Amino acid sequence: MSLFRPQVQQMTGYTPGEQPQESGWVKLNTNENPYPPSPLVKAAVEQALAGRLNIYPDPLATEFRKVAAELFQVDPDWVLPGNGSDEVLTILMRTFADAGDLVSAPYPSYTLYETLAEIQGARFEKIQLNPDWSWPTTQAQEISAKSKILFVPNPNAPSGNRWSDEEIISLVPPQGVLVLDEAYGDFCDQPHKGELLKSQAGERIIVTRTLSKSYSLAGIRFGFAVAHPDLIQGMQKVKDSYNCNTLSLAAALAALKDQEWMQANTKKIQTTRKHLMAELGKLGFETVDSQTNFVWCTHPDQEHERRYQDLKRRKILVRYMKFGLTAGVLDGLRITVGTDHEVQTVLNALQEIG
Ligand code: PMP
């Protein structure tokens, strides 16, 4: 007899990207920002450390919500903070999906959605994207119509493409919610600030954001949701009271206040991204027009796994990904946009290993 819940027994479990603990790696596998966070973050954390760590943090994250709300031009009761946006996704699943409910997401996309659905005991359906990463419109509508939650990362991961607002709005489930996962939203040429929340379908849309990418705070773990207060209120009931700690709250607040720093880093990454895509093209790779801090690339010779291993031997980590589609297997390399130097290192290595 197993001690585990049936859902847990059946699970394969989620495998995060490799995080080598020793130095010396060119680490371009988990879409971290290569630049440090704003200096204001360090100052704020030091100040928080010198403060009262013996008392619990503010369960309402009042200061953070105020600043985040200003950015999205909404009131603070539209914001819910989380211990990374992955935690926000967990809170969403626990708030909106009952056991047996249908949860859906495009495929290939972020694989955590399926894992969270499995844990919750929800059913999960993949909406298989077309080979050019566009939506299979009719099938998407059919699945959305039955879904309690449809998760859509926009821009998408691992492809990096961004779908239009019209497409996103057309996907909002009539009997459920659309979670618009904008983990990479700040890297878009034209970033959004919650515009879709103010559309007619906005009452059923929840935008999630992370500070792990554009704000260079992956190590701190901070993300947040923005949605209509009715939806946030339900999520508030589900989240742990003290899900964000005193130090991470201080760091997140300081990072959000320094928009200039975030935007300067984002600009650098956009420039490097353009260079990386152009150079990959010269090496014979096909790339997707990326609106993120990573580039998805495939090579006509299909030797993606061999290249991943060859790079790893040189202490260069990129992400090798493989997806089973009805038309066969799709695999490729997802390369994070690092510093110019890191990107040149991976390009030189790719040239050498062929
Ligand atoms: N959504 C997507 C699409 C992601 O790629 C990631 C990062 N792996 C996340 C959410 C989670 O980010 P975090 O938990 O660091 O905020």
From TrEMBL:
Compositional bias segments (type: Polar residues): 7-31
GO terms (BP aspect): L-histidine biosynthetic process
UniProt cross-references to InterPro entries, sorted A to Z: Aminotrans_II_pyridoxalP_BS, Aminotransferase_I/II_large, HisP_aminotrans, PyrdxlP-dep_Trfase, PyrdxlP-dep_Trfase_major, PyrdxlP-dep_Trfase_small
Catalytic class of the enzyme: transferase
Domain Aminotransferase class I/classII large: 25-350
Reaction(s) catalysed (UniProt annotation): L-histidinol phosphate + 2-oxoglutarate = 3-(imidazol-4-yl)-2-oxopropyl phosphate + L-glutamate
Required co-factors: pyridoxal 5'-phosphate
Keywords: Amino-acid biosynthesis, Aminotransferase, Histidine biosynthesis, Pyridoxal phosphate, Transferase
Sites of N6-(pyridoxal phosphate)lysine modification: K213
Chain spans, region Disordered: 1-31
EC number(s) from the headed UniProt entry: 2.6.1.9
GO molecular function, one term: histidinol-phosphate transaminase activity
Family designation: Belongs to the class-II pyridoxal-phosphate-dependent aminotransferase family. Histidinol-phosphate aminotransferase subfamily.
Record's subunit section: Homodimer.
Protein name, per record: Histidinol-phosphate aminotransferase
Gene designation per UniProt: hisC
